[in-house]
Amino acid sequence: MARPLSNILLKGIAGLPAVRVRSTSTVFRSFNCNGMRYSTTVPNDPDTHEDFQPNNKLESSGMSLKDIVEQDVKDNPVMIYMKGVPDFPQCGFSSLAVRVLKHYNIPLSARNILEDPELKSAVKSFSNWPTFPQIFIKGEFIGGSDIILNMHQSGELKEKLQDVATSQKSE
């Protein structure tokens, strides 16, 4: 009689000697995007040279996250908080928003919320909006990818971005 392949594999694995792994302090980060779970590990080993230690550039700026979000929105005509970066979005909604905005050939500033869960919370608090991406145009919170797409289809986004494109050409 044939035994199921899974039984053979499990018995084979169970017969292998255990491997001892050296214990190090590791930070595990995980995130979900389009129903898929992604995990990353960040070593937090004190023996690792500081050049290779993970660091948070936002924390080292000396500003609060709330102040950073306010400054981002004020200083950038088009600001998007997204999963990933414009050249490599890490979810479909962020990808859609970037594609729509790039259609207008305007400068786009962005921050990757997956790099810092505290930044993600700060942006949510700032806008009172629970989902990402979050798009701000000329200091005004617009919404997410669905709203940007609807504005694009109705022509409203072109009007909203017209002076952004004009001001960039004059600089």
From TrEMBL:
Stored InterPro entries: Glutaredoxin, GRX_PICOT-like, Monothiol_GRX-rel, Thioredoxin-like_sf
Keyword match Metal-binding: yes
Keyword terms: 2Fe-2S, Iron, Iron-sulfur, Metal-binding, Redox-active center
SUPFAM superfamilies linked to this entry: Thioredoxin-like
GO molecular function, one term: metal ion binding
Protein's UniProt keywords contain Ribosomal protein: no
GO cellular component: mitochondrion
Domain Glutaredoxin: 78-142
A Pfam family that the UniProt record links to this protein: Glutaredoxin
Gene3D superfamilies: Glutaredoxin
PROSITE patterns: GLUTAREDOXIN_2
Family: Belongs to the glutaredoxin family. CGFS subfamily.
Protein name: Glutaredoxin domain-containing protein
Source organism per UniProt: Manihot esculenta
